[in-house]
Amino acid sequence: MRRFVAAFTISLTMTAAAEAQNTPCGGDFGRFVQSLKAEAVKRGYDRATIESFFAGVRQDRGVLAADRRQGIFKTTFTDFSRRLISQYRLDRGRELARKHDALFDAIERQYGVPRGILLAFLAFETDFGAVQGDFNTRDALVTLAHDCRRPEIFRPQVFAALELHRRGDFPTDTTGAWAGEIGMVQMLPRDILERGVDGDGDGHVRLKTSLADALFSGANMLREFGWRPNEPWLEEVSVPADLPWHETGLNHPKPVSEWARMGVKPRSGRFEGANLKAAILLPQGRKGPAFLAYPNFSTLFEWNMSMVYVTTAAYFATRLEGAPIYNPGNPDPGLSDAEMRLLQQKLAARGHDVGGIDGILGEKTREAVQIEQRRLGLPADAWPTRELLNRL
């Protein structure tokens, strides 16, 4: 599966953004490449390294097509999770957890990131390393830097790849995902430079071939994103029918003890984070699955910005750690792609920032839906329905 572009999640510095703006995107591709070479000279790279890196670079139309084709993220949580979580992935994840027990123990001691989380991303990103992508990484990055949709994100990645090439760790035939991610856990060149870890001690960070390098690097990246050791991330709960729905959602965290007083109960056993704050996450509204999302859940959006992807990955990680299958409930039908776009247009017309008219139910659209549901006297559970669309 080609995941939602991880580059959306990279924290860029102001300097990098300014550098990207100094050279325009678009126009003739050959002249654009020459501008990259000129900037590389200014950065101090020798001519031989520059020519070696850019030799044969080409614009990849397949990358542009993939960038504009991400309809999978418009599916519901239940559909998406059932598509991604197979018995094979559960069995394979548990097998790897047992086989590499010492490796996962070492990672958890050093970074505090549990094996379930790392295995979930390893499964979804590359099917445990089996499908790492066949796009030429250098060509993909230059193509996306030339494209004027997000040059401020991808241009710095080109020079990060150039630096890896200078060090001998980036052959120009390196392949990966369409958005330039490399290896088993799909990291961008700049992340490899800044957060890559030599997990197997061979003096290199090789995310395509070394499981230890991939897992250590992924854990290090999550820690820098703010992962809190020894804390849960997602826990399934049951919610009462009279819960104040407008208080649910990731932007309304409360102490777990307060949710308990309001009638929220863990699906089984005791609350995993009884002394923490958490938000009630209702991926498909009050009639569907319900979860407590702890602070660690939010750090996963630094890896991927898709709500349905992150929720599914977080849930899959709990399954690998022993949680039961979630209760799907009986949620109200969701909107079609055309209806979702129309809803976003209506919300935007009322002054809401929905993050773009793209048909994807992201967090900004959910927040706008919840506000309008409450204004109209509807259950404000952030799940858009045809009734809401008609009322608007």
Task: Summarize this structure briefly.
Helix content is 48%, strand content 5%. With 392 residues, it is mainly α.
Describe the structure.
This protein is mainly alpha-helical. Among the domains are: 234-241 and 249-320, no CATH class; 337-391, no CATH class. The chain contains 18 helices and seven strands. The chain has helices at residues 14-22, 29-42, 47-54, 61-67, 77-84, 87-99, 101-111, 115-126, 137-146, 151-166, 189-195, 211-225, 256-261, 295-299, 307-320, 337-349, 363-375, 386-391, and strands at 135-136, 175-176, 234-238, 254-255, 265-266, 277-281, 291-293. A five-stranded antiparallel β-sheet has the order 4-6-7-3-5. A two-stranded antiparallel ribbon has the order 1-2. It is globular, with a radius of gyration of 22 Å. The two termini are 36 Å apart.
List the helices and strands and how they pair.
Blueprint: H1 14-22, H2 29-42, H3 47-54, H4 61-67, H5 77-84, H6 87-99, H7 101-111, H8 115-126, E1 135-136, H9 137-146, H10 151-166, E2 175-176, H11 189-195, H12 211-225, E3 234-238, E4 254-255, H13 256-261, E5 265-266, E6 277-281, E7 291-293, H14 295-299, H15 307-320, H16 337-349, H17 363-375, H18 386-391
Antiparallel strand pairs: 1-2, 3-5, 3-7, 4-6, 6-7
Give Rg in angstroms: 22 Å
Mean pLDDT: 92
Number of helices: 18
Number of strands: 7
Low-confidence stretches: 1-21
* Overall shape: globular
What class do helices, strands and sheet pairing give? mainly alpha
Strand order of the largest sheet: 4-6-7-3-5
Instruction: Report how far apart the termini are.
Output: 36 Å
- Taken in chain order, the helices and strands follow as HHHHHHHHEHHEHHEEHEEEHHHHH
Domain Transglycosylase SLT: 29-317
GO molecular function: peptidoglycan lytic transglycosylase activity
InterPro entries: Lysozyme-like_dom_sf, MltB-like, MltB_2, Peptidoglycan-bd-like, PGBD-like_sf, PGBDSf, SLT_2
Domain Peptidoglycan binding-like: 337-392
